[in-house]
Structure formats: structure tokens, C-alpha cells
Amino acid sequence: MPEADLLCLCRDTLSRWGKDARRTASLMIGQPDYDAYLAHSRATHPDQQPLDRTAFFRLHEARRFGAGGGFKCC
Amino acid sequence: MGKLKTGLIFGAIAIIGAISIGVLALHQGESISAVWMVTAALCVYAIAYRFYAKYLAGKVLQLDAKRPTPAVRHNDGLDYVPTPKNVLFGHHFAAIAGAGPLVGPVLAAQMGYLPGMLWILVGVVIAGAVQDMLVLFMSTRRDGRSLGDMIRTEMGPIPGIIAQIGVLMIMVIILAVLALVVVKALAESPWGTFTVAATIPIAIFMGLYTRYIRPGRVGEISVIGVVLLIGSIILGGQVAYHPVWGPAFTLSGTTLAIAMMAYGFIASVMPVWLLLAPRDYLSTFLKIGAIAALAIGILIVRPELQMPAITPFIDGSGPVFSGALFPFLFITIACGAVSGFHALIASGTTPKLIENENQIPLIGYGAMLCESFVAVMALIAACVLDPAVYFVMNSPAAVIGTDVTSAAAAVAQWGFHITPAELETLARQVGEHSILSRAGGAPTLAVGMAHILSSVIGGEAMMSFWYHFAILFEALFILTTVDAGTRVCRFMIQDLLGVAMPKMRNTQSWTGNVIATALTVGLWGYFLYAGVVDPLGGINSLWPLFGIANQMLAAIALMLGTVVLFKMKRQRFAWVAMVPAFWLLVCTLTAGFQKLFHPDIRVGFLSHAARYKGSMEAGELMAPAKSAADMQHIIFNDYVNAALTAGFLFVVIVILFYSIGACRKALKNSQPTAVEIPPANEVAHA
Q1: What does the H/E/C string look like for B454-517?
Q2: For B631, which of A55, B254, B397, B625 could close a Cys bridge (C-beta 3.0–4.6 Å)?
Q3: Domains along chain B?
Q4: Which residue of A has its CA nearest to B93?
Q5: Considering its fold, how many domains does chain A have in total?
């Protein structure tokens, strides 16, 4: 395998890990991936205005500690 | 070829695991490396995951990779989101890992490392991980419905509402006992109290930042928050020895208990973004970080276990918790082996995020194995301490007295030797006035962690930092659980009261909010306060109550699993849920019965009450009562605890009764009757 390809592969893997780690950390505190939401919203409801990042954040913040949410283990 | 290779690899793992367990079990004498325990645990997990989880997935549950999960069917990018399995694993693990697996094993160490280790390993494989996986499976097949909902639809409305009330009672006990752990850790400790108090302004700053300065930028503010936290630990060391601030932050248990109730009330009625959410970020990241640090520390330091394999206290005479090995060891360890609370989480967000049914073993079974490993690490941290230190820290003052000389003399009677001067030196090293009677598990774990982590970074000079780091991390996530739990209870109470007064159901109404929150805080506050003033340290009577409650919830979840397997016409495999359910019922019913009627006043609530009553009639006072009113109070507490225990027994027996009924009905029916969402896409409830 040429060196450039290997380097590229490493970089891609690292960047994927980084993205996964970020996504995991934010889901741990009740925040799903905004980019995934945006992509989904654009694909399925192109006619509707998607929530912006802040509104999305606040919605999930409220939901995590709302009725039925916020369960944490002992 | 593949089969042969798997056979060879797992054969080797089985042999290594068996050797490790054998070495640990047969060991006698001075000390033994913790590496044996880590190896034994990892081998057991590997085999259980490779074979048992696979068996559950394939033969028992027949997971279907082609069947759309709720996340796929209702994908809305908001609540239902197909999530990569690694990401979801992290989320699920963070949600189930709490204080339980850290505290339970520390308390169980009084019987030696062996009984605790064996139950953590056996329990997780046959009960805990099975429960988590089953509930996740059932909820995934039912659009992410909650445990209570599933009990209602599969067993009927009466068991549904009884389970709901049971969950509420369990929540109250959990909140009280967790709050008690924090009070025990912070009482008379200005350093610890200061750092924990400092989290409040830090969190409020973070809340304002994410609300107004840089909305939603959780990453950067969490980094700032963690830096401030570490700063507060360092500053705490100065505060503790300050002539004015030192005494100001030296609070008694009762003051702390009242402060916690006030704080819990305020934190859960305030807007969540201001305090609760930012503290949640800190506690979540700190928790994961501290668990990882402990794992790395144990691997690098490879500490020696000082605790004997088995101590004489298996007969029930131990100072840390009362009651014999059976059933109380199984009650005490709670979360590390099997935790009913996971059933609430596995039927919460996780089933709405899972991408594919074939990930259920990884998320359900695998995450629980990790939780169990956390429990093993906590057990190691407790057992690397000199047993004399362990018993001095965990025995109530009523047993060992209040100064180092009497404490050293008391533990010497049990065969553990330490000089008073050594106890004073250790207290100084961790930056505390005293380490006597710091029950509740958290301080012991913190000393153990400080012992391990200071061997990696900083040496003896950093011991006090690591000790307070560990205390902070435990207190922080316990407090977050208490606040979030208070809100959850509040919504439950509003829901239950709403049956009689529909007005109460409005969660936006301030009146409903304040009444239900005050009720919640009053309920757990009552048990907290009673625990704080208890002469035996509170943990002694409250932790078993919590353990019974938690294990009963697990039994309920497993009974639901049994019913569902019968209704799926897969009763041939229902033993996977029936065996652990049966064992948990045996343990919890025996423990509950003993808590009620045991003649030893340290175990039985009613005999305790009777003894006090007898003394009162004879006109005598019994410690810690200082007046007839105190005596009345103690007797009343005993009756409340007894009533609660009886309540738990009632709930679990009723559910058992209904489960048997539901199974018999399912057997008579030739068709599957489980209320699942059909596999095809046509039924969409979106």
C-alpha cells in the first residue's frame, strides 16, 4: 500500500473515532446528533424549516429532565 | 476451522479464568495480587458474552436483524434516531453506571473479597445482564414502551398500577440512601464540603454560559467546568485549614441533611438549564473519567488485596451491615450484579435509539458486564486497604468509639492490627480530621482510589488531592441523581395524584410542581434524617432496605420477561428469566422477612422497636435516645421501616401472583399472545 494511502486511511480512521467520541459524549448527556437530525429533516421534510442548533439543544435539555425522562441509575 | 479456532481461544480463556478463581478461592495468608481478580472477571465476561448472550440472542429471543427497530420505523431525528452501536453503548453505559456498583461492593467487602466477587460475577452473568438484555428486547419490540407500560399491557392494569407505586417507593428509598452516602462522606469534612458546594456556582456559571453566551456549546463549557472543579479541589485544601472558612465548612450530619433537602427542592423546581443540566454534564464526564482512571490505575499499580478471602463476619455479626451472608450479601451488592433500576433505563431512551435488533446483546448484555467490572474495581479498591483501616472507617461509633485508641483496640479484637498513630497519619495524608466511622462506602472507596491513583501520579503528597477528587466525583453524580430523581418522583406523584385530581397532572402548573416536589423531598428527606441520627450510622438499616427494593424491581422485570416468553410461546426457554427471578425472590423475600421479624435487634425492625418499647415501659433510656420523646421517635422510625418493607413484599408477591396467572393463561392459548409491534412496516404509530 502506498504511503499516502496509508496516511489517508489513518487520518480517516482517527477523524471517524473523534466524531464517534464526540457523538457518544453528547448522547451521554441527552443530546443526539444535530447533523444527523438536519440531514434527516432535509431529506424527509424538505418543505419544513428544521430546528436550529440552539432550539434543538434546548428541546433535548428540557426533555432529559422532563416527565418520563431523566432516569439515572443509582 | 472457525469453530475450532473459537473453541481453542475460549478453551484457553476458560482455563485461565478457572485458574484465577481457584487461586483467589484457595488463597490464605498475607496478600494476593488484584490482577487475579481482574483476570477472573474478564475471562468470565468473555465466555458469558460469547456463549450465553449469543444463546439468548439466537435461540431464546430469536433476534431478527431484518425487523425494523423503533428508531428505524419512527426515525424523526429527535426522539427516535438510529444510532451507531458504539455511540449507543457509551450512552447506555453512562446511564446505568451510578453509585450503586461503587458502594455495594465496598460494604460487601466486610465478608472478605471472595463472596462479593463470586456474586458479582455469577449474578451479572445469570441475572443482571439477562435482565437488561430482556427488557431492552421487550421494549424495542414495543416502540420503546416503559417497564410500567409493558407490565400493564402484558399482565393487566392492576399489576401495572401496583408496579408503578412500587417504583415510586423504591425511588424514595434510593434517593434517601444515596443522599445519606453523601452526608456521611461530607460530615465534618470542610475540604469535601467546600468542593461539593463549589459545584453549585460553577454549574450556574456553566448554565448561564450555555444559555446566553454560547448556546449549546457543551463541549467547551464542560472543559472549563472540569478545570474549575479541579481548581476547587486544590482551593478546598486551603479552605479546610483556614481559621475562619475551615470551621464555616465543617458541618454536622444533621445540618448537611437539612441543607441537602433544601437544595434538592430548589434544584428540582428551578429551570433545569440553570443548575441541573450543567451539573449533569460535569458529573457524567467526571464519572466516566474517574472510572477509566481507576481501571488504568489498577492495571498499572497491580495492587495487592489485603483483605482476607473470607472473614468471620459471614455469620452476620459484622459491623458494616447486619445480617448473614445469605441473604444479605446478595442484597448488599445490588447494582454490580443485578439492578432493577436498569430495567427503567433499558425501557427508556435506549430502545428508541437502537439501530438493529442484533445490537441488543452488545448494548443490553455487554454494557451490564462493564457495569459489573466497575463493581469489581470498587471491590478491589476496598480490599487493597489494610483491613484494619477498612473496619475502622466502616464501623459505627457505637461499636468502635470515637477516638483512634478505642478504634484500634476494637479492630484488634477482630484480629486486625493497626496503631492509633497509623490511623492519625492516614487521616492526615488524605486531608481529613478523622477517618473513623466514615460509613457509606464513599470515603472507603475514596481512600482506596487515592491509594491506587497516588501510586501512579503524585505519590503520598497527592493522596489528599486524589481522596477529595474521588469524594467529589461520587458526591457530584449522586447529587445529580438525587435532583433528577426528585423530578422523576415529582412527575410520578403528579401522575398518581392526577387519578383523583386531574388538575395535579398539569406538569406546567406551579402549584402542582411545588406540592409534588415538596412531597417527594419530604419523603426521602424523612428517611435521610432518620438515617443520619441513627446510632448505627443509618447505612446499616437503610442500605439493606435499598438493596431489597432494587433487587425486587429486578425480580419484577424478570417476571415480566418470563411472562413475555410464555406469551411468545417460547416457554421452553423461559428458564433464562425464571431461574434468576426465582433466586432474587428467594433472597429478597427472606431478607424482607428477616428485616421484619428477625429476633436480633440489629436486623429486625420489629424486635428493635419491641426492645425500645420494653425499655421505655421500664422507664429506662436506650442510646442514642436522650429523652422519652427520642425513644418514641426511634420506635416510630422502626414501624415506618417495617411498613415500607412490608409494602415491598406486598408489591413483589402481587406481581408474582399475576405473573403465574399470565403464564398459565398463555399456556392454554395455542397462539402467541405477546403484544408486540408486528415485524412488517405497515403498522406505524408515528
Answers
A1: HHHCCHHHHHHHHHHHHHHHHHHHHHHHHHHHHHHHHHHHHHHHHHHCHHHHCCCCHHHHHHHH
A2: B625
A3: 2-188+251-668 (1.20.1740.10)
A4: A28
A5: 1
